[in-house]
Amino acid sequence: MLKSVSVTKVCGRITRWVLRVLLFELRRELTSHPFLKRSTQSRKQIHKTEMNHCELEEVTQHINDKISMIRRLLELRAVAKDPDKRGTLLKIEQEVSAINVLLDRFERYVGEQRGLLKHLKDLEGFFLEDEQDALHLKNNIPPHMPKRGQQAAPQGGGQVAVQSRQTDAPPVSQEQGPPRKHQRHQIKEMEFITVPEFDSIPPYMKGRVTYDQLNAAVQSINTAVTSKYKILHQPVKTLNNVSRTLHQRFKDQETKDTKGQFFIVEQDIREFAQLKVDKRFVGMLNMLRHCQRLKEVRGGGLTRFILL
């Protein structure tokens, strides 16, 4: 009996102390309010200025909130005196603590999701840059690049193309012997000029020739070389009169310096590539020679352009 009375007295003291603290805080907040603070500083200014409606509502709402809190504490004081309801308050306290733990977890989860969202936005920016680069490549494909359905020109030179084709072919046993005839019919083509190689050409040699125009000249030379050596690789008996004449002309143009090499002359460019070998085209041939795509061999009144 004495213990219950002492507990009740302690609860009453604690409640009164809490009420005093709340009243003290209420008084301090009211005195620190901007409107009331102005009133304490100068009473004359209060009579001269009218009270703002929003400030009055704010002060009224603040006072009502404090009064409601005091009423709840008074109700809790009566509940705390009942031993049966004190256990319920302890359970409520435990539930509130559990809710606070959950709120902390949710805050951490929200922070992680914000970081993940920032990371995803960065990835989206990278993907948009890649998409723009892909669209730029799609809209600026060099004209010398092969189209769909066309045979791609060898990008590593003629010898690299021959090696890659031989690698893709199935292995042949040594008893059958190497396919010499198939290797002899491979036609070498000039490798296209890369951007760094084009930039390395001196300006006085380059002039107004663009990168695409120079590679178009490479494509024309490859066309002339392919047309010429297709005729040379065919048996003479299967050729018509015009092709036989061309075949004989090609043989007459060969020298000891061109043996085993692929070369053309200006007449081949005019006939097979349908191009005019003027001063501008000769300048592009000099640029190709600078890039080590071909070399010139003179003799017999002809200039032979040998593919390197």
Automatic annotation (TrEMBL):
GO terms for biological process: cell division; chromosome segregation; mitotic cell cycle; regulation of microtubule polymerization or depolymerization. Keywords: Coiled coil. GO terms for molecular function: microtubule binding. One of its GO terms (cellular component) is outer kinetochore. Residues 138-185 are annotated as: Disordered. Belongs to the SKA1 family. This is SKA complex subunit 1. Transmembrane segments: none annotated.
